Amino acid sequence: MKKTIITAMIVCVTAGSTDAGNWTQFRGPKGMSVVTDRLPAELKESNVKWKTDLPGRGLSSPIVVGDKVFLSAASGPDQSRLHVICLDSKSGGKLWERQFWATGRTMTHEKTCVAAPTPVSDGRRLYVLFSSNDLLCLDLDGNLVWLRGLTVDYPNASNSLGMASSPVVADGVLVVQVENDSESFAAGINVNTGENLWKLDRPKAANWTSPIAIERDGRELAILQSSAGIHAVAPRSGKEVWYFGGGASTIPSSTFGPDGVLYVPANGITALQPGSSTKDVKELWVSGQLKPGTSSPVIVRDRIYTVNSSGVLTCGAIKDGKRLWQIRMEGKKFSATPIASGERLYCVNEDGLLQIIDCSGDEGKVTSSLALGEVVLGTPSVAGDAIYVRSDGHVWKIGG
Amino acid sequence: MKKKLVTTALAVLAVCQLQAVSTAKLKEAVATVKAVGGEGRGNVAASEAWRTLSQAEAGSLVVILSSMDDASPLAANWLRGAVHAIADRELAAGRKLPVAALRKFINDTERNPRARRFAFDLIEQADAKLAKSLVPDFINDPSVELRRDAVQGVIDAADAAKRNGKKDDATRGYQKALRYARDVDQIQKAVGALREFGQTVDVPKQFGFLMDWQVVGPFDNTEREGFARVFPPEKGVQLGGAYPGKEGEVKWQAFTSEDEYGLVDMNTALSMKKGVTAYAFTEFEAQAAGPAELRLGSKNAWKIWVNGKFVFGRDEYHRGKRIDQYHLKVNLKAGINTILVKVCQDEQEQPWTKEWDFQLRVSDSTGAAVLAKNRRPTPSAALNPPKGGKKGY
């Protein structure tokens, strides 16, 4: 009992920050897909710590806060049942589950589903968005704090192919991009009340990219990517700080490198040096050799990695965007973004083959793989020294 | 042993945290939650009320479920979350749910259909065997989700009869399934099986697709601006009238869908064009006044008016189409109701952007067809669709 209390206290303390060991959003801390944790160097069946059934479909990533793993899922003939699930990271056992009804449209392309956006946590609460534009805020014990039905509020905000943008918390504000051909908008939402702090009209065009938070001159900005380009806005006001036109991808999202450069999926990859205003933004280079598919770029030290939809992994130099090497990974279809740990990349293909690519040499090399045997579209997550991967039916903890 | 001790301790802790929630407090909390509005209005008060609700005893489950009857979709979600929290807590602590009361609640078909299905799920968690025994009685239930399980049981039995060579039993089973099914996949399954047995099925009538239309166009939709522009048919339909169209004078012309899923294909009616819009008009003679649903599928931008009143519109192009893609609640008057549909085509050139069409049916809230008094017999082409032919879904 004493141990339980101590553990609970530790969780309370660590839950207030996004320190190592937590994976609180799509692509992890700062949306960089990079971890310092020691992930397993080899993938094998015995590394699978647990595998837990899920009550519905999903390609959202698990997120991890303390010793709790959170997932979203959707079930029912029309995917109108929305699930938020909390698992014990040690055992994979269910700690709690809450169900809700979709209040917006649930139609999606058959490949994706209603539980596509990845939840985000600020360490105290969980913010869960679905393709139906239902937005839920719960505390880490499953108590409902607030909810929104963004399609109830804005009836033409939907995409018949499905929505997928994952929300982010920037400067204490929940930022959502609900961008589509019709009622397209982005909003900053008060994390305590669920009310709008601001709402911006956005380009009327389908967009599945996720906002990211970047730090510049000591303040956090929200980066909104769309077919029009990049808008950097102040999270508390929604006011534009700078803009970069010329277009950008509507599927893979930008990555903010540790070098302070924003790597945007645009004309391949476009490297941007953010500024204090639009005129200060510098285009450092554009490389058509690094064009990603659906996965987002990953930056590790002086390298940039991209994966196209057929599994070609390309490594480039961040100084000029020149391609250094290219390999074809195992499998033919890739959707998920890789995770980087040291010199290794962890990639999973759509057939559920998780593989390690050793990038320490002159060329990448697949050194180990593990067949999970199910379709995996979502990006893996990492917490501690374990990888979490989910399919429509299961979530695995590997390593740790 | 250690794990068991911790579990027991947690259960004891949970009981200690439980506070008896008085009826008055429960009522007040429900009212607070039901007052939530759009754009987050009322969330702060609802959050506190939700805590009260979620701490209520299991005996309050039916009270909360009952309160969903007149709750908005957002309020219903707050209430659902509270019910789930109570049930989760009770089951985790090894306590029982009030199965008899939940069963009584389910049997009251006047209650909120989704709340009744949720009550069924709770019974399933508490007593799976009992839940299974209840399913066949849901075959004609107003809850589409409860009905679906019962229909699936009938389909499964028909499939088994078919496998065992009992064609008559299987045919009766599929016919029964077709009579009660509301979900498209189950209807299609039954239709396919009956056709294999040589039966003719009137699919358009089964769904209530509107087949007979007057159409006019094309009008201009260059750069998608025609969606917002008001062309003459929106000011009043005069079937004998002629209007200036995109390429000259245009007149209303009759069009009857020959698609088993009621596709109104403007490329067939008006020839294949891009950057255009057109209108389709029909009269629906309702047997009686009352609420109904227009269920529309289209991958083009569209607007719809009933009896001259705008219902809804959507300017999305080529992102997908399916039967019942949009559910639009309307009130029909007894006798003739006019329905006007505007359907727009953009200027994209990709192969998947050729379709310029819609399908529309009238149903009740469960999806059962509401048939017009002036409905004409289904065209034979729609009764005997070619295998592998174009389908309106």
Word description of this protein:
The complex is a heterodimer of chains A (400) and B (393). With 400 residues, chain A is mainly beta. Chain A has a single domain (2-44, 57-293), classed as Quinoprotein alcohol dehydrogenase-like superfamily (Methanol Dehydrogenase, Chain A, 8 Propeller). Helices cover 4% and strands 42% of the residues of chain A. Chain A has two helices and 33 strands. In chain A, the strands form eight sheets. In chain A, strands 1-27-28-29-30 form a five-stranded mixed beta sheet, with no helix packed on it. In chain A, strands 2-33-32-31 form a four-stranded antiparallel beta sheet, with no helix packed on it. The radius of gyration of chain A is 20 Å and the shape is globular. Chain B has 393 residues and is of the alpha+beta class. Chain B has three domains: 2-135, no CATH class; 144-201, no CATH class; 207-383, Sandwich (Jelly Rolls), CATH 2.60.120.380. Chain B is 41% helix and 20% strand. In chain B, the strands form three sheets. Chain B has a six-stranded antiparallel beta sheet with strand order 4-1-6-11-8-9. Chain B has a four-stranded antiparallel beta sheet with strand order 5-12-7-10. The longest helix of chain B is centred in the N-terminal third of the chain and has 20 residues, at 73-92. Chain B is globular and about 75 Å long. Residues 7-18 of chain B have low confidence and may be disordered. The chains are: A mainly beta (400), B alpha+beta (393). The interface between A and B is large, with 43 and 42 residues.
